[in-house]
Design brief:
Its cofactor is Zn(2+). One of its GO terms (cellular component) is cytosol. By secondary structure, this protein is of the alpha/beta class. Among the domains are: 139 residues, Neutral Protease Domain 2 (Neutral Protease, domain 2), CATH 1.10.390.10; 141 residues, Serine Threonine Protein Phosphatase 5, Tetratricopeptide repeat (Alpha Horseshoe). Helix content is 50%, strand content 8%. It contains 19 helices and nine strands. The chain has a five-stranded mixed β-sheet with strand order 3-4-5-7-6, with helices on one face. A two-stranded antiparallel sheet has the order 1-2. A two-stranded parallel ribbon has the order 8-9. The N terminus is likely disordered. The protein binds zinc ion (ZN). The site of zinc ion has 4 residues, from α4.
Length: 445
């Protein structure tokens, strides 16, 4: 369906088909459909979907597809999509795929989204009645230029897809939702980058922008490094040359390599050729081949981000913030706040927080999961039942990873519960998600 371009149907005559050009597929009563897509794509971007799907037009080149029960809500949530496409075109050049349709999948879909060209696939958990949270759509849209138009040659060059897309996504968000919101996203990314480097402290190879992937299953070492270190690298170049020069460079990079697969070396050569002397200003080798976080990486400056961090540390010291400070918050702010509390709060603090702000009942899945992870890690058995309900309702891997890990680590009772939930929910999870949960459970056996 993603490639429905010149769809042509012809029914096979029931007598059997000498006239049928697809003799291999000919059978009485069968219908053959042809799909042609003019733009070349790598095989991992080929996808199709089958189901009881209805649609709503939400823009001149965008239609939302979904099950009948969620389609209207989805259409409202993604109403700002055309504005984002225009912002993207201004920054990165023409949108070359004609259509940008959105397909909302069932709850078992294991990812936030998948950037299939012409029709992006999305988890229904991104629908939260908060149009400011549409950055998942911004991310998939940004892939239209970086990732889909220019694709990494091998998985070792994955950062060319994801680092560039993280950068492009934040630029689009900055235009559509403002600088503060973009900075907030950068702040969360910075934190995530530091956490990931810590996670790989015994295997620093995978903190390299271009790691050696020989004999490695990419799913086993999947992390935010290509995303956030890639983002930091591009942001570092932007700071060095200034935004106008960098924007010109990016546009030229995209128009030069569009509809091709390239490697990191090709990017670096192109950078040196178009920004003469850059290698004397930035240690490009350290960025690409070095481990950890280079010294000239930077934590973003954001008033909101700093405020949230301060409030989180005040809370840990026993101070509850005044309501007026948090009433304006939406999902991203709450998430950052909860992430900054991390696990070293005690159960009574988690309960007090929930009593006041009803985070365990949030409509925003990100907030709800972040809270449940925090509370369970802090030792609150009160939330076991809510975690169980959630884990049987949704198959998005990020949530499974966070909650199964929290349960498996918190106590023997939590561990047993995690095993039982998984045994009962397993068949609703995608095979890749099953693998993730199984490795968590065996790691904490
Ligand atoms: Zn992506």
């Amino acid at each position: 369906m993603a490639a429905r371009h010149h769809a042509r149907r012809h029914p096979i005559p029931s007598e059997g088909g000498l006239s049928c050009p697809d003799s291999l597929w000919c059978a009485p009563g069968r219908i053959v459909e042809h799909f042609i897509m003019d733009q070349p794509i790598p095989p991992y971007l080929f996808a199709f979907a089958v189901g009881h799907i209805v649609s709503r037009d939400i823009g001149p080149r965008t239609r939302v597809y979904a099950g009948p029960d969620v389609v209207d809500e989805a259409a409202r949530e993604f109403a700002g999509t055309e504005e984002m496409i225009r912002a993207g075109e201004k920054l990165f050049g023409p949108y070359d795929w004609e259509r940008f349709d959105l397909l909302v999948l069932p709850m078992s879909f294991p990812y936030a989204g998948m950037e299939n060209p012409r029709m992006v696939f999305l988890t229904p958990t991104v629908i939260k009645g908060d149009p400011a949270g549409a950055h998942v759509v911004a991310d998939e849209l940004a892939h239209s230029w970086t990732g889909n138009l220019i694709t990494n040659k091998t998985n070792e060059d994955f950062w060319l897809n994801e680092g560039f897309t993280t950068y492009a996504e934040r630029r689009i968000v900055e235009v559509v939702q403002g600088e503060e919101r973009a900075a907030l996203s950068m702040g969360r990314g910075w934190r995530e980058l530091n956490r990931t480097v810590e996670r790989f402290r015994d295997n620093m190879e995978f903190t390299k922008l271009k790691p050696c992937m020989q004999g490695i299953d990419p799913d086993d070492v999947y992390s935010q490094i290509p995303y956030e270190k890639g983002f930091q690298f591009l942001w570092r170049i932007e700071r060095q040359v200034g935004r106008p020069v960098f924007d010109k460079f990016t546009k030229k990079y995209i128009s030069t390599f569009k509809f091709q697969s390239i490697d990191t070396e090709t990017f670096i050569d192109f950078l040196k050729a178009n920004v003469p002397g850059i290698e004397n200003q930035i240690d490009l080798r350290l960025w690409v081949e070095g481990i950890g976080i280079p010294p000239d990486a930077m934590e973003p400056v954001s008033a909101v981000y700093n405020k949230i961090k301060t409030l989180a540390s005040e809370f840990k010291n026993g101070q509850m913030s005044g309501d007026d400070e948090v009433v304006q918050w939406n999902g991203q702010e709450w998430q950052l706040y909860l992430e900054n509390l991390s696990s070293n709060i005690d159960p009574s603090q988690a309960l007090a927080l929930d009593a006041r702000y009803r985070l365990s009942g949030s409509r925003d899945w990100e907030v709800k999961v972040a809270f449940l992870e925090l509370a369970i890690s802090a030792g609150c058995k009160e939330y076991f039942a809510e975690a169980e309900r959630l884990l049987k309702q949704v198959g998005r891997m990020r949530y499974l990873r966070l909650l199964y890990t929290a349960l498996a680590k918190c106590s023997d009772k939590g561990k047993m519960l995690a095993r039982r939930i998984y045994a009962e929910a397993r068949n609703c999870y995608h095979p890749i998600a099953q693998g993730v949960v199984e490795s968590i459970l065996s790691k904490h056996a």
